[in-house]
Structure prediction request, 518 residues.
Amino acid sequence: MKPVLVEVKIDPDHINRPHAIRNAALQKAGLPSGADVSTRVTRRSVDARSRRPLFVLQVAVGEPDAVEPREAIFKPIRLGDRRVIIVGAGPAGYFAALTLLEHGIRPIVVERGKDVTLRRKDLKKIYTEGLINPDSNYCFGEGGAGAYSDGKLYTRATKRGNVGRVLDLLIANGAPGDIRIDAHPHLGSNMLPRIVRAMRDDIIACGGEVHFDTRVDDFILENGQVTGVRANGAQKLSADAVLLATGHSARDIFRTLMARGILVEAKPFAMGVRIEHPQPLIDRIFYHQSPRNENLPAASYRIATQVDGRGVFSFCMCPGGYVVPASTAPGELVLNGMSLASRRAPFANAGLVVEIRLDDVAADNNPLSALDFQASVEQAMFAAGDGVTQQAPAQRVGDFVAGNLSSNLPKSSYIPGIYSAPVHDLLPPMVAASLRKALPELGRKFKGFDSNEAKVLAVESRTSSPVRIPRDRDTLEHVSVKGLFPCGEGAGYAGGIVSAAMDGEKVALAIVQSLGLA
Ligand SMILES: Cc1cc2nc3c(=O)[nH]c(=O)nc-3n(C[C@H](O)[C@H](O)[C@H](O)COP(=O)(O)OP(=O)(O)OC[C@H]3O[C@@H](n4cnc5c(N)ncnc54)[C@H](O)[C@@H]3O)c2cc1C
Prediction:
């Protein structure tokens, strides 16, 4: 028979019964239950619109026996003498390195932080001593900002690259095959480091280089062309091209570019709070049931509203997750979220942020104004605390909206601890005002969302880069500096693990072209 794709709705109680799924798919395809044809689930999501959530499965019926490629895609190949320096071992950097290797170009990855395993020790010090290592933290180190995260792998930027290829490469390096099926796949912080390590092994086995503890602090320029970088003060590394994938938190790199006269532009970004609810409350709001059916994943949400024409939206929602300190320098406080693969923690958290426009902070279009604004809020949040640890100011949602200090706080997943503070006063006025108007409205749409069981923690300030490093639309080279290829989230061309990975691949291909090796 000609293969067909059918959609079936399955009760959560039956999701672990392959026969029930197969029979439902055969019936939908108009075939008898004993038909001798293959069935394979190709997509899985949850439809929670009705009172009883259902799994929605897309099933391919009658496919010829096709085995998905699962072995490593990259094999050692003969490398030419061209050297490309990749600054940053985040998703953009590592996917770029693998793409260059496919084309016979040796990538030299330089990373300011430590390898993904050693990095864990520095994360621990944030919790135990309040110590932020400016080169090794939740944003910096092998795997980049994505390594100790929720590991959500969905992106809306599907037109910017081949999402399937990115997912296949993750699977080839140890991710479960389900990420190809789930509509909203995620990996979790316990799975990601192993995958990152496997990717590094591939890069090195195929002839690439990866150097940790190597912070780039300058660019070597000759006649409007980048010919290399300087690292750790004295080390000089020459290259045929430099791919810059340093992420949205590398303020020192943005400043170095500006000091060198290399154009960097301010761009809109967002700022707000991490909002944390008990997970059962989120299950009740979005699944209409609590406790939820044990076969359903922890409920998640993505919500948005407008306040006086300004966007307020949720960001990086982590069901069954933890709020984490994502600061990158001593003396600042920045929050984000992560989860483990099981997403079993008792809390749900998400960024709830307000759109920051250029004329709010950088009317002069000066990128320094945007960076300074972001940094000043993060420093104020730290200064409001004990001046030592990463304790976060927090407020019950009802108190935040009413402008009252909370007399006590509910429990939180945030390990450094929370303390009662007037978050409504600590945030920039426009951010606080927009959130205080948005929350009651969100509470009306999603009953209980603004309950006093929920609290806001501050500050969520690194949703995206406040600056862009502009590049030529066709060559992807910096608009005025030859040989420099801005890439990934820090350059303003990605937002999330998969889109950064796709941008890494795309920019690597542009470098192949520019070196005449396509
Ligand atoms: C806690 C947390 C949770 C997140 N959760 C998710 C999620 O669930 N799903 C999702 O899609 N996205 C998530 N994100 C965002 C995601 O991680 C980023 O969008 C993505 O990692 C960006 O990739 P990148 O390669 O462009 O930059 P990054 O991942 O930021 O990597 C940049 C790398 O460059 C290095 N670097 C910086 N400066 C220098 C220098 N001067 N010299 C050498 N190296 C340098 C850094 O150490 C870092 O390793 C999360 C982020 C955080 C912080």
User: Anything to note?
Assistant: Residues 83-265+465-514 form a domain with the FAD/NAD(P)-binding domain fold (CATH 3.50.50.60). The chain has a mean pLDDT of 94.
